[in-house]
Amino acid sequence: MFYFNGKEEVTLDSENIPKHVAIIMDGNGRWAKKRFLPRKAGHKAGADALEGIIDAAKKIGIKHLTVYAFSTENWKRSQEEIDGIMDLLRSYVKKYTERAKKDNVKMDAIGDITRLDYDIQESIKNLEEVTKDKDALNLHIALNYGGRDELRRCVKKICKDVEKGKISSDDIDEDIISKNLDTADIPDPELIIRTSGEERISNFLLWQIAYSEFCFSDKLWPDFKEEDLVEAVYQYQNRNRRFGGR
To answer: Which residue out of 5, 16, 26, 55 is catalytically annotated?
Structure first.
């Protein structure tokens, strides 16, 4: 497959496309600040950028795309910014529900969505139901998600199963832990992308990224385009993944 990565034409190996790519979409606020716009405008531009990346991921052949939309730590932001993000989320869940009528993308949320407003929770559940049979791309949106919180909730679920006698403590292994995470039945991401020049995990998929490859882009998220995703996949394909071996 031939693609343009913004600099030159590159060939992606169709036999080595990562099944799961996860993205820390960072830089919306800085994008807006550079243009003397309110932060809400940056989040709107970031949501628009995601639409392009969804199309690009399908084109490349990625089967799972997880995006970090709102973290457990984001509640520390100003109420004005949080309200703006939630209004934007309402709008885009509605938009994606309409888009689902013609688009072959399955969508779901990971994270503890019970803290979101009830109408948003219901809209997300409806979107999941509407898209449950789609199969070109699985889009997982991390909302009120934090890796430590996910592990905390996972431990509580396992403890309840032990208390009920469904399993014993000796049964607990990596497989049981994985099955009790938000990402149960989703393959671990082979590639993590973070935009805006930052090089941190930021409490994202802490269990799942044990052997993920990382790609850091200096571009702010609203400026991240198809060619940037191509470049990240190209970098991934040119790395030697040893999984602890030689």
So the answer is: 26
